[in-house]
Amino acid sequence: MILEFKVFTLNCWGLAIVSKNRKTRIKAIAKFLSNSHYDVVCLQELWLDCDYFLIKDEVAGILPHSHYFYSGVTGSGICIFSKYVIEEVFFHQWSLNGYIHKLHHGDWFGGKGVGLCKLTVNNLSVNIYSAHLHAEYNRKSDEYEAHRILQAYDTAQFILLSSQGADLVVLAGDLNTLPGDIAYRLLTSIPGLVDAFDSADVPRDHVATCESLRNSYTPGRLVKNKTQGQRIDYIMFHPGSKLQVEMKNYKLPLPDRVPLHSFSYSDHEGVEATFEISKQAILKSSRNENDVKNVLDECETILNRALNNLVTHKIIYIFFSILLLFGLIITFIIDVPAGFVVVYNIFRVIIGILFVFSILMGTIWNKIEKHGVLAVKLAIEKSLKRPTEL
């Protein structure tokens, strides 16, 4: 028996107000999917209910089963559409996902995590996972490195522990990590996932999934300099011990532009992978224990550094809290200059807000972040102490 199984993933860039041409693009994405022949579709950054239901209604004829993973303030943005009945669902929300005060980044408000849908495909048990890791805003000075490591490790462990007995495991989504980065290696080493791209023969201009030169939303300076984009959207897979899975096709299927418009479907490219599945007893694991140990050792070093940084951050915030408190007290002692009452009160309010912010960041938020990092560090230590031969 040979079964063809086709998967598609796309970061839809569906932010209200901020995302350009959102309504037209979402309708175009829905139209594209309704004319496709996918077995499973994983979408990210579908933040608005109305956009999710628009796509759901449009694709109901070919992808009648779907699930949206609600989480956080704006929803996780993650949903899965399926040709097959979705039998079980679960969402694992990460304990760390950026900072609440980084409004211009906004990752915290999404309550991001990894979603799981269990399917039965021709008597085969298939686990579909979709995730959207924290963005890397500054590669040279990445303040979210520990957060993304936590997310990748959590996702890898979640897949490893929840996929026992599954005939096929597929992870699809915007993982915000480059091939070879530590988050990428966590996902490929711990659960033994294989990057579908590695089995593909893809043209050079169809490699980047973000800031692609053919995408209309790529900044002009990158296009002018012909700077190659990044491959951060993935479809990864791992067959069970009773299956053989081969890559039949891998491509970026979306046209460069939405029909009759001058813009692309999203600021990311969609990724499509077609698998050929056959029953065959292959009693071997793609998990390499040496690779796992190496990547966990590296993670432990980074997390130790993050814990040390948190101690420094706490001291800095407490120091500023004390300075601001003194400043606030002085504003109540000194007489208000004539004619500056309003300005003086505004200044006092600003100092008060900064004082409360510094106190919260140096105490409650610092403790939350410390516990999140510490939880992963201790879990990694347990894994490193585990005997390699079981």
Account of the protein in words:
This protein has 390 residues and is an alpha+beta fold. The strands form two sheets. The protein has a six-stranded mixed sheet, with no helix packed on it. A six-stranded mixed sheet has the order 5-6-7-8-10-9, with helices on one face. The model has no long low-confidence stretch (mean pLDDT 90). It is 37% helix and 21% strand. Helix 7 packs parallel to helix 8 (364-385). The chain has eight helices and twelve strands. The two termini are 33 Å apart.
Biggest beta-sheet profile: 6 strands, mixed
Strand order of the largest sheet: 3-4-2-1-12-11
SS-derived structural category: alpha+beta
Shape: globular
Rg over CA atoms: 24 Å
As a percent range, the share of helical residues equals: 25-40%
Based on the structure, what is the oligomeric state of the protein chains? single chain
Low-confidence stretches: none
Short description:
This protein is an alpha+beta fold and 390 residues long. Helix content is 37%, strand content 21%. α3 packs parallel to α4 (182-189), α4 (182-189) crosses α6 and α6 (289-333) runs antiparallel to α8 (364-385).
SSE layout and pairings?
Layout (H helix, E strand, L loop, with lengths): L1 E10 L10 H13 L5 E5 L4 H11 L5 E4 L10 E4 L3 E8 L19 E9 L2 E9 L12 H18 L5 E7 L7 H8 L4 E2 L24 H5 L8 E7 L3 E9 L19 E9 L9 H45 L7 H22 L1 H22 L5
Parallel strand pairs: 1-2, 7-8
Antiparallel strand pairs: 1-12, 2-4, 3-4, 5-6, 6-7, 8-10, 9-10, 11-12
Helix pairs in contact: 1-2, 3-4, 4-6, 6-7, 6-8, 7-8
